[in-house]
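Dissemination and training. As part of the outreach component of the grant, students in the summer workshop were shown how a complex can be specified as a set of sequence lines and then modelled as a single object. The example used during the hands-on session is reproduced here so that future cohorts can follow it. Participants entered these lines:
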Amino acid sequence: MPKPTLVDVGREAGVSAITVSRALRSPEKVSEALRAKVEIAVKKLGYVPNQSASTLASNKSSSIVVMVPSISNNVFTDVLGGISDALHGSRFNMQIGYTNYDSQEEERILRSFLNPTPSGVIISGLEQTDETRQMLENAGVPVVQIMDISPKPIDMIVGFSHDQAAETATQHLIDSGYKNIGFIGAQMDPRSLKRLAGFKKAISDNGELREQCIAVTNKPSNVRLGATLLDKLTSQFPECDAVFCNNDDLSVGVLFECQRRGIKVPDELGICGFNDLGISSETVPSITSVTTPLREIGRLAAAMVIGEEGAPSTPIVDLSYTISARESTKRV
Amino acid sequence: MPKPTLVDVGREAGVSAITVSRALRSPEKVSEALRAKVEIAVKKLGYVPNQSASTLASNKSSSIVVMVPSISNNVFTDVLGGISDALHGSRFNMQIGYTNYDSQEEERILRSFLNPTPSGVIISGLEQTDETRQMLENAGVPVVQIMDISPKPIDMIVGFSHDQAAETATQHLIDSGYKNIGFIGAQMDPRSLKRLAGFKKAISDNGELREQCIAVTNKPSNVRLGATLLDKLTSQFPECDAVFCNNDDLSVGVLFECQRRGIKVPDELGICGFNDLGISSETVPSITSVTTPLREIGRLAAAMVIGEEGAPSTPIVDLSYTISARESTKRV
DNA sequence: GTGAAAGCGCTAACAA
DNA sequence: TTGTTAGCGCTTTCAC
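and obtained this result:
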């Protein structure tokens, strides 16, 4: 028995194929009676729409395009998990593009993903090229930027302020009694630079900012790099008594390096990480981190882009963050 | 200017549309001269094939379907990364299905992914339902099972032996002088059960296996669970002097719990993990683990499924594993 | 609110 | 080896 088509469903329901199509994708354009008949016929025949035919005829696909910098960074697997959750059971599927933190690559990939026109685009960060923004506007699809926040999104945006988060975290270190606070960062993408700016602001507001308190690299982040950067930091800034790390890989690496070198945490060195990826709360001592709503960002972005009920009514959603204060900054 | 179609390219090259189609997808069926002409015309017009039309006409898509148990488990993000690498630049794209460690769910998802017929299927493990195996055979697509090894794959297979890996790791603990070795496991899927079997074999071969040396749960693995299971293990098996952990989340969690309780690693307790996910080598002390070729499994599976040059010529590829011996099992 | 006709761009099957 | 013909299943457009 071949797969039933719209024509088969129409025959079963006593209507034409096009009416079935309408009943399925824009029920409000069809009378109540017909809708019911069609629904029964669909169930009876086990009809499943053919996406290719639909896409070919309309030049619109049912994909939600998701552009993220990296597959291996747990930050984005969390976000993707949230999107996946929200799309589950809907008629949309997700198509993922990995930009490797490169706007040009992002533009290239997106160009290829924009044909046929997807049902929506979720894209990380604010730093799209002019070309990319133009393509997105021309495509006329809903676009949700994620991870960051801005008063002037391309279309919609959901995220939080990295400057503020870093500033609050740094202030937490200051409030905990640390006097000489350093910054450790890897993969210095625009959001990382904002965290650095927030750090600098908090330090400047409470005294003098010295350049030697910053140790950063553009390499991808990992645990070992935390150790390496701590070495760098303590040699250029020996009086350092606390570090704010760009992310949790680094903060964990810093803690391990302290254990190796016999540096007492939190007494001799306070540590604060970023994103709170799950291990920070388990280490000994546990590490203070900035808890960010990664999964929720994904979920909301998906809801906004498909215009689901329950989606926020405003195009700008600032989800904020919380400081999870733990042992690594609890000076006695 | 509208997007060029096969007809446009054909006109430019002075041939028919179908010839262009053939020149593009099976060059060997077309004369050398024509192929060159077509190639020039394609470049000149910037022709890009329309996937939907192709899929609709042939009922075959250019997707490689990848079925994995979980999005959040780093084991699978590594594998996916390998597949993504291998597919990059080819004409194939990947379509990912998350089964949540459930064969019925796997069957359900796969059924929906098999229409239109994909170009290939990569599927985790050996434990497909009969229905699933049947569907896969009927579909007539190349199938590569991954993560495990078996003499009788559905079609092709690339992985390693979990029993042997666990047996070797346990033997390493025995050789390191540990006498009372326990097993800690979470997410006891079939591969985990094989690791447990390998553990039991090594223990039995060297003395007597006692049931109380095993502490497992079916909950998803995480760092905290390592601590919880260590508690369970040491209360039911107080003489325990080493643990083999199902995976690295748990082994890290065990180490942290030892630090909390003042248990000296490796002297009072030896620890060995599984998969070597990157943090094991960084902890203090560093943790011995079984290094498994996750990325390589992904790369090879993709190469095999698309029949790429450079793919192994045999349908069964055992990639093996290595024991990365570190401080956590180096008893003085 | 509903339907008929005309493709979307490609490939299978057959013909030359 | 190359071309012709006839759809794939759906949506668009336009008519009623």
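Chain B touches chain A through 37 residues (CB under 8 Å). Students were then asked to discuss how this feature might be tested experimentally.
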